[in-house]
Design goal:
The protein is of the alpha/beta class. 36% of the residues lie in helices and 20% in strands. The chain folds into two domains: 98 residues, Rossmann fold; 131 residues, NAD(P)-binding Rossmann-like Domain (Rossmann fold). The strands form two sheets. It has a six-stranded mixed sheet with strand order 2-1-3-5-6-4. Involved in the biosynthesis of the chorismate, which leads to the biosynthesis of aromatic amino acids. Catalyzes the reversible NADPH linked reduction of 3-dehydroshikimate (DHSA) to yield shikimate (SA). Belongs to the shikimate dehydrogenase family. InterPro entries: Aminoacid_DH-like_N_sf, NAD(P)-bd_dom_sf, SDH_C, Shikimate_DH, Shikimate_DH-bd_N, Shikimate_DH_fam.
Amino acid sequence: MQLFGIIGHPLGHTLSPLVHNWGFSRYGLDARYEAWPTPPEDLPAFMERLRQTPIAGASVTIPHKTAVMAFVDEVTDLGQAAGAVNTLYWRDGRLVGDNTDVEGFCRPLVMRGIAPRRALVLGAGGAARAAVLGLTRLDSGVVGVTARRFEQAQALAREFGVLAVPWDERGAFGADFLTNATPMGMAGRFEGVSPYPAQALAPGVVAFDLVYNPYETRLAADAAAAGGTVVPGLEMFLYQALEQFRLWTGRLLPDDELRSLLLKTLYGQAVPRT
């Protein structure tokens, strides 16, 4: 049996085992996917275990996406460009670090024919990196990045050759496309909070909120009320997972079936696709 899993800390209620074990079962593959909570100080020991077991592949999440790059034999061009990897697999006896977050971000936009002319990314962390890189790969017109700590936005903007926008001026940027890569709007203490002023939302704006719990965030509700289009945050998780499964198995999972499974698991019902 091939063994796969996810490393991160904390892992909480990760959906990755559900996704990949469903995929293995669907194709009748002799494989299992587990959750491996891994504090930062345990990362070196885990990477040694990965080579010795051997573990066939792994998902990597916070806080290891950058640190794990020092423990692999090769980082793909996409992983290098993103400055982070979220997927590990073996190729010709070498351990490879790759990034499927960028694919997860881009695929929903391409499928919907969304071509941003003036895009603004809210946040400057790992998810924001994937969003900025994705937007540059899609040849979006003008791309800006903003964060509460302006120096973080400036650092990210310099790295990718985009604009740094002061947080207090984000509403005046005139974005026709917004990506929320912050925790604002997430279930818990941030629920009901939007990272973007509602009065700055114009008809036709596209809001891609990477938060997917709750299904409709405050930003999504505000954008819809303004006459805009909403891309649900679950789409990025869905398509990055599909790409991981393809890298590990060479098989393509049906996105509609997996989307229905995730919607039922997360929200208890089949929420209509936006």
